[in-house]
Write a structure and sequence with these properties.
CATH architecture: Orthogonal Bundle
Number of helices: 8
Shape: globular
CATH topology: Arc Repressor Mutant, subunit A
Radius of gyration: 19 Å
Strand order of the largest sheet: 1-3-2
Structural class: mainly alpha
Number of strands: 3
Number of domains: 1
Helix content: 55-70%
């Protein structure tokens, strides 16, 4: 087998993105299941958490805090807004919209918080508290690896 073919055949074992996505899907399913009694998914819970603790936030600020592109953020906000858990309102600068937690959103967040705490503890018991802390640190460090995945990379055709 040629070197290039050998390298390509080992993508499953070497691809950082694949490993992170597999682990992410696995943990997402675990947390989604735990939060199902309050009809929230982990992404929705995380957004509510950011807004409860740091909000109101502009769409750009919330996207940055969630490490999400704005299109994905918008699609995640729609069910929260539809269910009356958040409101999208004009910001201080009328050109920028803000997400704000409603009373119903705060109440749902407070119901979800113990469910999140329980699944968080179960994961740390199973995986190891120290390993879980190191995993979070390593994953957060990825966000500082120097890439700008949501930058506008379009090239001006006249340049």
């Amino acid at each position: 087998m040629a070197r290039n073919e050998e390298t390509l055949s080992d993508i499953d074992g070497r691809c950082n993105c694949l490993a992170a996505r597999q682990a992410s899907r696995y943990l997402t399913a675990v947390y989604d299941q735990a939060l199902s009694p309050v009809e929230l998914r982990i992404t929705q819970f995380s957004i509510l958490h950011k807004l409860v603790n740091d909000g109101p936030l502009t769409m750009g600020d919330l996207a940055g805090k969630m490490a999400m592109d704005r299109t994905t953020l918008t699609s995640n906000l729609k069910p929260l807004e539809r269910d009356g858990l958040i409101d999208i309102v004009p910001g201080k600068d009328r050109r920028a919209k803000q997400a704000v937690v409603t009373k119903a959103g705060l109440a749902r967040y407070k119901k979800a918080r113990p469910l999140w705490s329980e699944v968080q503890s179960r994961f740390e018991d199973a995986y190891g508290e120290s390993l879980a802390a190191r995993l979070r640190d390593a994953l957060r460090a990825v966000l500082d690896s120097g890439f700008d995945p949501w930058a506008d990379n379009t090239v001006d055709a006249q340049a």
